[in-house]
Design brief:
The complex is a heterodimer of chains A (about 210) and B (about 100).
Chain A lengths: L1 H7 L16 H30 L7 E2 H31 L2 H31 L13 H32 L5 H26 L3 E2 L2
Parallel strand pairs in A: 1-2
Chain B lengths: L1 H34 L4 H23 L7 H18 L4 H9 L3
Helix pairs in contact in B: 1-2
Classes of the chains: A mainly alpha (about 210), B mainly alpha (about 100).
Chain lengths: ~210, ~100
Amino acid sequence: MADANQKLIPMTEWGGGVFPYSVGHKKLGMWLFLLSDSMTFSALLIGYSYVRVANVNWPKPFHIWPSVTMATLMTLILLSSSLTMVMGVAASRRGDHSATVRYMLLTMLGGVGFILLHSNEWLGLIREGVRLWENPWGVPLFGATFFALTGLHMAHVASGVIYLGVIASGVRSKRFGPEHVEISGLYWHFVDLVWMFIFPMVYLLSASRQ
Amino acid sequence: MSIENAHAGAGNRLFVSVWVYLLILTAIEVILAYLQLFRTEVMLLILMVLSAIKAGLIIAYFMHLRFEKPSLILSIMPAGMLVIALLFAFFPDSFRVLELRPQ
Protein backbone atom coordinates (compact mmCIF):
# COMPACT_ATOMS: atom_id res chain seq x y z
CA MET A 1 0.00 0.00 0.00
CA ALA A 2 2.76 2.46 0.98
CA ASP A 3 4.81 1.70 -2.14
CA ALA A 4 1.78 1.96 -4.37
CA ASN A 5 0.94 5.37 -2.98
CA GLN A 6 4.45 6.70 -3.32
CA LYS A 7 4.51 5.67 -6.94
CA LEU A 8 1.18 7.34 -7.50
CA ILE A 9 1.97 10.71 -5.95
CA PRO A 10 3.58 12.33 -9.04
CA MET A 11 0.60 11.48 -11.23
CA THR A 12 -2.36 13.82 -11.42
CA GLU A 13 -5.78 12.67 -10.36
CA TRP A 14 -7.06 13.64 -13.81
CA GLY A 15 -4.82 11.09 -15.51
CA GLY A 16 -6.55 8.11 -13.90
CA GLY A 17 -4.94 5.21 -12.12
CA VAL A 18 -4.73 7.14 -8.86
CA PHE A 19 -6.53 6.33 -5.61
CA PRO A 20 -8.56 9.49 -5.10
CA TYR A 21 -9.13 8.62 -1.44
CA SER A 22 -5.69 7.12 -0.70
CA VAL A 23 -7.35 4.07 0.83
CA GLY A 24 -7.66 0.54 -0.46
CA HIS A 25 -10.89 -0.65 -2.02
CA LYS A 26 -11.68 -2.86 0.98
CA LYS A 27 -11.48 0.03 3.39
CA LEU A 28 -13.58 2.24 1.15
CA GLY A 29 -16.09 -0.59 0.86
CA MET A 30 -16.28 -0.89 4.64
CA TRP A 31 -16.85 2.86 4.96
CA LEU A 32 -19.68 2.72 2.43
CA PHE A 33 -21.20 -0.27 4.23
CA LEU A 34 -21.03 1.60 7.53
CA LEU A 35 -22.66 4.61 5.90
CA SER A 36 -25.63 2.48 4.80
CA ASP A 37 -25.72 0.68 8.15
CA SER A 38 -25.82 4.01 9.97
CA MET A 39 -28.97 4.85 8.00
CA THR A 40 -30.60 1.59 9.10
CA PHE A 41 -29.80 2.29 12.73
CA SER A 42 -30.84 5.95 12.50
CA ALA A 43 -34.20 4.90 11.09
CA LEU A 44 -34.75 2.50 14.01
CA LEU A 45 -33.47 4.98 16.61
CA ILE A 46 -35.54 7.84 15.27
CA GLY A 47 -38.57 5.53 15.08
CA TYR A 48 -38.02 4.59 18.72
CA SER A 49 -37.54 8.21 19.84
CA TYR A 50 -40.63 9.24 17.86
CA VAL A 51 -42.99 6.91 19.67
CA ARG A 52 -41.13 7.57 22.93
CA VAL A 53 -41.75 11.33 22.76
CA ALA A 54 -45.30 10.95 21.43
CA ASN A 55 -46.38 8.89 24.46
CA VAL A 56 -46.46 10.50 27.90
CA ASN A 57 -47.24 7.14 29.49
CA TRP A 58 -44.28 5.35 27.89
CA PRO A 59 -43.16 2.44 30.11
CA LYS A 60 -40.14 3.15 32.30
CA PRO A 61 -38.93 -0.32 33.22
CA PHE A 62 -35.28 0.74 33.49
CA HIS A 63 -34.53 1.26 37.17
CA ILE A 64 -31.22 2.80 38.22
CA TRP A 65 -30.45 -0.60 39.76
CA PRO A 66 -30.03 -3.03 38.06
CA SER A 67 -30.91 -1.94 34.48
CA VAL A 68 -29.22 1.45 34.11
CA THR A 69 -26.18 0.38 36.15
CA MET A 70 -25.80 -2.73 34.00
CA ALA A 71 -26.25 -0.71 30.80
CA THR A 72 -23.57 1.73 32.03
CA LEU A 73 -21.28 -1.24 32.68
CA MET A 74 -22.02 -2.49 29.15
CA THR A 75 -21.12 0.95 27.78
CA LEU A 76 -17.86 0.83 29.71
CA ILE A 77 -17.11 -2.65 28.34
CA LEU A 78 -17.85 -1.59 24.76
CA LEU A 79 -15.78 1.61 25.02
CA SER A 80 -12.88 -0.33 26.50
CA SER A 81 -13.13 -2.96 23.77
CA SER A 82 -12.85 -0.11 21.25
CA LEU A 83 -9.70 1.04 23.03
CA THR A 84 -8.15 -2.45 22.88
CA MET A 85 -9.14 -2.57 19.19
CA VAL A 86 -7.24 0.63 18.32
CA MET A 87 -4.28 -0.74 20.31
CA GLY A 88 -4.56 -3.90 18.18
CA VAL A 89 -4.60 -1.84 14.97
CA ALA A 90 -1.53 0.11 16.15
CA ALA A 91 0.25 -3.16 17.05
CA SER A 92 -0.51 -4.67 13.64
CA ARG A 93 0.87 -1.55 11.96
CA ARG A 94 4.08 -2.02 13.95
CA GLY A 95 4.15 -5.61 12.68
CA ASP A 96 3.74 -7.09 16.17
CA HIS A 97 1.53 -10.09 15.34
CA SER A 98 1.26 -11.64 18.81
CA ALA A 99 0.25 -8.30 20.40
CA THR A 100 -2.31 -7.79 17.62
CA VAL A 101 -3.89 -11.18 18.28
CA ARG A 102 -3.85 -10.54 22.04
CA TYR A 103 -5.58 -7.17 21.70
CA MET A 104 -8.13 -8.60 19.27
CA LEU A 105 -8.92 -11.45 21.69
CA LEU A 106 -9.44 -8.87 24.46
CA THR A 107 -11.80 -6.97 22.15
CA MET A 108 -13.73 -10.17 21.41
CA LEU A 109 -13.92 -10.87 25.14
CA GLY A 110 -15.49 -7.43 25.62
CA GLY A 111 -18.00 -8.21 22.88
CA VAL A 112 -18.93 -11.54 24.46
CA GLY A 113 -19.30 -9.86 27.87
CA PHE A 114 -21.58 -7.28 26.30
CA ILE A 115 -23.75 -9.96 24.69
CA LEU A 116 -24.04 -11.91 27.97
CA LEU A 117 -25.02 -8.83 30.00
CA HIS A 118 -27.50 -7.70 27.37
CA SER A 119 -29.06 -11.18 27.05
CA ASN A 120 -29.52 -11.10 30.82
CA GLU A 121 -31.27 -7.74 30.41
CA TRP A 122 -33.54 -9.18 27.71
CA LEU A 123 -34.38 -12.25 29.81
CA GLY A 124 -35.26 -9.98 32.74
CA LEU A 125 -37.69 -7.96 30.60
CA ILE A 126 -39.19 -11.11 29.05
CA ARG A 127 -39.70 -12.56 32.54
CA GLU A 128 -41.53 -9.36 33.50
CA GLY A 129 -43.92 -10.03 30.61
CA VAL A 130 -42.58 -7.78 27.83
CA ARG A 131 -43.41 -9.17 24.38
CA LEU A 132 -43.15 -7.71 20.90
CA TRP A 133 -46.86 -6.88 20.95
CA GLU A 134 -47.65 -6.30 24.64
CA ASN A 135 -46.19 -5.44 28.03
CA PRO A 136 -47.59 -5.03 31.55
CA TRP A 137 -47.20 -1.23 31.57
CA GLY A 138 -49.24 0.07 28.64
CA VAL A 139 -48.00 1.33 25.24
CA PRO A 140 -47.62 -1.96 23.33
CA LEU A 141 -45.08 -0.47 20.90
CA PHE A 142 -42.44 -0.51 23.64
CA GLY A 143 -41.57 -4.18 23.15
CA ALA A 144 -41.45 -4.05 19.35
CA THR A 145 -39.23 -0.96 19.17
CA PHE A 146 -36.98 -2.01 22.06
CA PHE A 147 -36.35 -5.56 20.85
CA ALA A 148 -35.94 -4.55 17.19
CA LEU A 149 -33.41 -1.83 18.00
CA THR A 150 -31.33 -3.63 20.63
CA GLY A 151 -31.71 -6.95 18.80
CA LEU A 152 -30.24 -5.55 15.60
CA HIS A 153 -27.40 -4.04 17.64
CA MET A 154 -26.74 -7.32 19.45
CA ALA A 155 -26.69 -9.12 16.08
CA HIS A 156 -24.03 -6.63 14.98
CA VAL A 157 -21.96 -7.25 18.11
CA ALA A 158 -22.27 -11.03 17.65
CA SER A 159 -21.24 -10.91 13.99
CA GLY A 160 -18.46 -8.48 14.96
CA VAL A 161 -17.06 -11.01 17.45
CA ILE A 162 -17.09 -13.69 14.71
CA TYR A 163 -15.54 -11.27 12.19
CA LEU A 164 -12.75 -10.32 14.62
CA GLY A 165 -12.17 -14.00 15.34
CA VAL A 166 -11.73 -14.76 11.63
CA ILE A 167 -9.34 -11.81 11.18
CA ALA A 168 -7.39 -12.65 14.35
CA SER A 169 -6.86 -16.26 13.24
CA GLY A 170 -5.78 -14.92 9.85
CA VAL A 171 -3.29 -12.55 11.49
CA ARG A 172 -1.87 -15.47 13.48
CA SER A 173 -1.38 -17.52 10.31
CA LYS A 174 -0.06 -14.36 8.53
CA ARG A 175 -2.82 -14.56 5.93
CA PHE A 176 -4.19 -11.11 6.85
CA GLY A 177 -2.19 -7.93 7.20
CA PRO A 178 -2.63 -4.59 8.98
CA GLU A 179 -5.23 -3.37 6.50
CA HIS A 180 -7.60 -6.22 7.38
CA VAL A 181 -7.17 -5.53 11.08
CA GLU A 182 -7.85 -1.84 10.55
CA ILE A 183 -11.01 -2.56 8.52
CA SER A 184 -12.37 -4.95 11.15
CA GLY A 185 -11.59 -2.19 13.66
CA LEU A 186 -13.71 0.25 11.67
CA TYR A 187 -16.64 -2.15 11.95
CA TRP A 188 -16.11 -2.65 15.68
CA HIS A 189 -15.93 1.08 16.41
CA PHE A 190 -19.12 1.59 14.45
CA VAL A 191 -20.92 -0.97 16.63
CA ASP A 192 -19.58 0.93 19.65
CA LEU A 193 -20.74 4.23 18.15
CA VAL A 194 -24.29 2.94 17.61
CA TRP A 195 -24.45 1.88 21.26
CA MET A 196 -23.47 5.44 22.22
CA PHE A 197 -26.87 6.45 20.83
CA ILE A 198 -28.94 3.43 21.93
CA PHE A 199 -27.78 3.68 25.55
CA PRO A 200 -28.98 7.27 26.16
CA MET A 201 -32.08 7.09 23.94
CA VAL A 202 -33.40 3.79 25.26
CA TYR A 203 -32.08 3.50 28.80
CA LEU A 204 -31.34 6.99 30.12
CA LEU A 205 -34.40 8.62 28.58
CA SER A 206 -36.67 6.06 30.27
CA ALA A 207 -34.75 5.64 33.52
CA SER A 208 -36.78 5.56 36.72
CA ARG A 209 -35.40 6.11 40.19
CA GLN A 210 -37.35 3.59 42.25
CA MET B 1 0.39 6.75 4.75
CA SER B 2 3.15 9.04 6.03
CA ILE B 3 0.62 10.77 8.31
CA GLU B 4 -0.51 7.40 9.65
CA ASN B 5 3.04 6.37 10.41
CA ALA B 6 3.66 9.63 12.23
CA HIS B 7 0.64 8.93 14.40
CA ALA B 8 1.44 5.28 15.04
CA GLY B 9 4.05 6.16 17.66
CA ALA B 10 2.23 8.82 19.67
CA GLY B 11 -1.04 6.93 19.10
CA ASN B 12 -1.67 5.03 22.31
CA ARG B 13 -1.58 8.03 24.62
CA LEU B 14 -3.98 9.86 22.29
CA PHE B 15 -6.34 6.88 22.21
CA VAL B 16 -6.36 6.53 25.99
CA SER B 17 -7.18 10.22 26.41
CA VAL B 18 -10.03 9.94 23.86
CA TRP B 19 -11.29 6.92 25.83
CA VAL B 20 -11.20 8.96 29.06
CA TYR B 21 -13.17 11.79 27.41
CA LEU B 22 -15.77 9.27 26.21
CA LEU B 23 -16.10 7.88 29.74
CA ILE B 24 -16.51 11.39 31.19
CA LEU B 25 -19.27 12.22 28.67
CA THR B 26 -20.99 8.90 29.49
CA ALA B 27 -20.77 9.70 33.22
CA ILE B 28 -22.41 13.11 32.61
CA GLU B 29 -25.26 11.41 30.74
CA VAL B 30 -25.83 8.85 33.50
CA ILE B 31 -25.76 11.53 36.22
CA LEU B 32 -28.30 13.63 34.28
CA ALA B 33 -30.54 10.56 33.96
CA TYR B 34 -30.23 9.95 37.72
CA LEU B 35 -31.02 13.55 38.72
CA GLN B 36 -33.93 13.82 36.23
CA LEU B 37 -33.83 17.61 36.12
CA PHE B 38 -35.37 18.05 32.67
CA ARG B 39 -38.54 17.27 30.75
CA THR B 40 -38.36 14.39 28.24
CA GLU B 41 -37.98 16.65 25.17
CA VAL B 42 -35.19 18.73 26.76
CA MET B 43 -33.47 15.61 28.06
CA LEU B 44 -33.69 14.08 24.56
CA LEU B 45 -31.99 17.14 23.10
CA ILE B 46 -29.21 17.18 25.70
CA LEU B 47 -28.57 13.44 25.26
CA MET B 48 -28.51 13.81 21.46
CA VAL B 49 -25.92 16.59 21.64
CA LEU B 50 -23.70 14.66 24.09
CA SER B 51 -24.01 11.49 21.99
CA ALA B 52 -23.16 13.40 18.82
CA ILE B 53 -19.96 14.64 20.49
CA LYS B 54 -19.12 11.07 21.51
CA ALA B 55 -19.85 9.80 17.99
CA GLY B 56 -17.60 12.53 16.58
CA LEU B 57 -14.75 11.52 18.90
CA ILE B 58 -15.10 7.86 17.93
CA ILE B 59 -15.25 8.60 14.19
CA ALA B 60 -12.39 11.12 14.25
CA TYR B 61 -9.89 9.25 16.43
CA PHE B 62 -10.85 5.57 16.84
CA MET B 63 -12.02 5.23 13.24
CA HIS B 64 -9.09 7.38 12.21
CA LEU B 65 -11.11 9.57 9.85
CA ARG B 66 -9.41 12.76 11.04
CA PHE B 67 -6.12 11.54 9.59
CA GLU B 68 -7.53 10.45 6.23
CA LYS B 69 -7.42 12.43 3.02
CA PRO B 70 -9.99 15.28 2.96
CA SER B 71 -11.61 13.80 -0.15
CA LEU B 72 -12.61 10.68 1.83
CA ILE B 73 -13.97 12.75 4.73
CA LEU B 74 -15.93 14.96 2.35
CA SER B 75 -17.36 11.94 0.53
CA ILE B 76 -18.56 10.20 3.65
CA MET B 77 -19.53 12.67 6.35
CA PRO B 78 -21.76 15.29 4.63
CA ALA B 79 -23.72 12.60 2.76
CA GLY B 80 -24.27 10.56 5.92
CA MET B 81 -25.26 13.55 8.01
CA LEU B 82 -27.62 14.86 5.33
CA VAL B 83 -29.45 11.55 5.05
CA ILE B 84 -29.76 11.21 8.81
CA ALA B 85 -30.95 14.83 9.07
CA LEU B 86 -33.59 14.12 6.43
CA LEU B 87 -34.91 11.25 8.57
CA PHE B 88 -35.62 13.86 11.25
CA ALA B 89 -38.08 15.59 8.92
CA PHE B 90 -40.84 13.52 10.49
CA PHE B 91 -39.79 14.09 14.06
CA PRO B 92 -41.70 17.30 14.94
CA ASP B 93 -44.84 15.30 14.17
CA SER B 94 -44.29 13.31 17.38
CA PHE B 95 -44.71 16.52 19.42
CA ARG B 96 -47.90 17.22 17.49
CA VAL B 97 -49.23 13.74 18.27
CA LEU B 98 -48.47 14.45 21.91
CA GLU B 99 -50.43 17.72 21.83
CA LEU B 100 -53.42 16.28 19.95
CA ARG B 101 -53.86 13.33 22.27
CA PRO B 102 -57.04 13.59 24.37
CA GLN B 103 -55.89 13.94 27.96
